[in-house]
Amino acid sequence: MYERLFRLREHGTTVGREAIGGASTFLAMSYIIIVQPVVLGAAGMDHGGVFVATCACSAFACILMGLWSNLPIALAPAMGHNFFFAFTVCGATAVGGFGWAWPEALAANLIAGVLFTLMASFGLQEALIRGIPDSLKYAIAVGIGLLIAFVGLQWAGIVVHHPVTYVKLGNLRNPVVLLSVFGLTSTAIMLVRGVRAALLLGVLLTAAVGLIASHFMSASWGYSLVEWKGEFVAPVPDPSPTAFAVFGGLKTLFSDHSLGDWLTIIFVFLILDVFDTAGTLVGVAERAGLIKDGTIVGAKQALLSDGVGTVAGTIMGTSTITSYVESAAGISAGARTGLASVITGLLLAGALFFHPLVEMVGGVVAVDAASLGAVASVTPTVACHPIIAPVLIVIGCYMLPAVAKIKWTDLTEALPAFLTIIIMQFGLSISHGIAWGFITYVLLKLVTGRVREIHPLVALFSVLLGAFLATS
């Protein structure tokens, strides 16, 4: 059966190698099971519901990818997309967000997933990928990476509020900060030593240290760094708080929000998915030797699996599901066929029974702002996630190398890229960063007489984004 479905001999592999490869990919990417409920929880979503949606729909997408495309590529909610969802779309308008309810954000994400699936059916992704300048693609990745790292630094208590300089270093002697620094250091050491599943192991090690420290010191601190949640294995949480809420969001999406807002949000969800999926597919397939005559065998089915996974994910209650670059870990371990993706999917489904562990390590610690070194904080306490924070900081590092691919010697490319990156950071808005980048790119090309370098899609997007900025 395995031979008929996955053509193992043709790809020079075995069931054992595929199983090891699928397990390696799972270990490399499983941090998302812990991180995703925390990130979307910032938008007000139920922790258990997001956890079930993440595990179940990632498992479904992985198995679909394996059986349909026969590629060793796993899928799960994308980092960056989830931050756009939680902190920009659902973020308060006072801090640069749109202030949408999370069911409405799911609805916009669903529409983007449907559009992605239709584009994959007709092969239209290539036009969008070719049309948007490389400098803006790389800048978007870098900007999101830095924003993720900044949130990680805040959740670690390493960076805190200051009324004059806006941010400053926190109190490095605070227990929350010390635990975060320990997690970051131990994870970094494992990464440079080539330890597989370094991110997951870093999370678990940090949680263990936090539990031990809390047992002995919580009385003197006045709080616990980690709270024990009981048995690791438990019944699957109730998915109903998030499942199918997207349809309620669809009812109010167009009536309660402006045309410019929902067009912008759907557009951003869509292009982020297109860029992430295309880049991952090419990079991972090339590493596995699965590109023949310049094309990826099974690419269309892979893109459709991505789109269908996103649609299923938004219906169940999680953000964009896309191909994971961590699939390279499985390929390095010998994976060459879709059987590895099926194995990864089965492991993700098995993770459904470990919600108490995920809830424990993703728990929030309310820390007195003054003890963190924050000055004139808006609130007397700061919500920290010392176990999750190190992962976010490292992911920011992963996304930063794209900055080297920007053409810094050409100011018509460099300035739009630069503005994209810094507006995302200082404006705390992914959508505004993209808008500034697109509009500036078109403007600078026009004034330098390089009109031919402006793709019609870029010109159209710039007009739409300009209208968005004018009304936001």
Task: Walk me through this protein's architecture.
It is a single chain. The N and C termini lie far apart (56 Å). By secondary structure, this protein is mainly alpha-helical. The mean pLDDT is 89. It has 21 helices and eight strands.
Summarize the structure.
The protein has 21 helices and eight strands. It has helices at residues 2-6, 15-29, 31-41, 47-69, 81-89, 102-122, 125-131, 134-156, 175-192, 198-221, 245-256, 259-288, 299-316, 327-332, 338-350, 355-361, 369-372, 389-399, 411-426, 430-447, 456-471, and strands spanning 75-77, 159-162, 166-169, 291-292, 295-296, 321-323, 365-368, 381-384. The mean pLDDT is 89.
Task: Identify the notable features of this structure and list them briefly.
two-stranded antiparallel ribbon, single chain, 2 domains, 472 residues, globular, two-stranded antiparallel sheet, 8 strands
Kindly provide the radius of gyration, computed on alpha-carbon positions and rounded to a whole number of angstroms: 22 Å
Measured as a percent range, the helix fraction is 55-70%
Poorly predicted residue ranges: none
Instruction: Walk across the major sheet and give the strand order.
Output: 1-6
- Helix-strand sequence: HHHHEHHHHEEHHHHEEHEHHHEHEHHHH
**How many individual helices?**
21
Shape: globular
**Total beta strand runs:** 8
Distance between the termini: 56 Å
What is the structural class? mainly alpha
Arithmetic mean of pLDDT: 89
Largest sheet: 2 strands, antiparallel
Q: How many domains make up the coordinates?
A: 2
**Strand residue percentage:** 5-15%
List the helices and strands and how they pair.
Elements: H1 2-6, H2 15-29, H3 31-41, H4 47-69, E1 75-77, H5 81-89, H6 102-122, H7 125-131, H8 134-156, E2 159-162, E3 166-169, H9 175-192, H10 198-221, H11 245-256, H12 259-288, E4 291-292, E5 295-296, H13 299-316, E6 321-323, H14 327-332, H15 338-350, H16 355-361, E7 365-368, H17 369-372, E8 381-384, H18 389-399, H19 411-426, H20 430-447, H21 456-471
Antiparallel strand pairs: 1-6, 2-3, 4-5, 7-8
